[in-house]
């Protein structure tokens, strides 16, 4: 279990900013809009996640569903992911994601405006790593989890963050899990 984390949405005392903690873009700040349900994954939780993943993701293909601030997807890009698709439906968040991508020069990041569930239903892509961090208390993670295994490569992993403890669906097993404040998170692996 992790210690209580700093208030979400704050980096270096500034509201609506999140810091990239590792890799090529380390220490860079990302701005994001004030939006209901948008709570970036705290630094300490991201640090734990990337320790679990092994720090670097060279050549990986990643999907950041419900991208929001983009903290998880940009962190993956910073650590060498070859391709990061960010799915977000909020227009203000899309604008911020595109601006942050351009400021970082993160050409491997593809920002798409879409409903995450609809996009996932229509996609045939598979990924090494999928981030599922929907708006807090929305319950959307459970809906996504039911069909997530088909979007992962063999041995692929999925990071889930939600208000309730994570329960692995058929085809996935929980590799690691933790809790920070009210958030439960887990790293699942495709069997």
Summarize the structure.
The chain is 24% helix and 31% strand. The chain has helices spanning 43-53, 71-78, 91-104, 116-122, 140-145; strands at residues 10-11, 14-15, 17-19, 29-31, 61-65, 83-88, 109-113, 127-132, 152-162, 172-180, 183-190.
Main features:
191 residues, alpha/beta, Rossmann fold, seven-stranded mixed β-sheet, 11 strands, globular, disordered N terminus
Describe the structure.
The protein is globular, with a radius of gyration of 15 Å. Helix content is 24%, strand content 31%. It is α/β, with parallel strands linked by helices. The chain has a single domain, classed as Vaccinia Virus protein VP39 (Rossmann fold, 3-Layer(aba) Sandwich). The relative contact order is 0.16. It has a 7-stranded mixed beta sheet with strand order 7-6-5-8-9-11-10, covered by helices on one side. Strands 1-2 form a two-stranded antiparallel sheet. It has a two-stranded antiparallel sheet with strand order 3-4. The chain has 5 helices and 11 strands, in the order ββββαβαβαβαβαβββ.
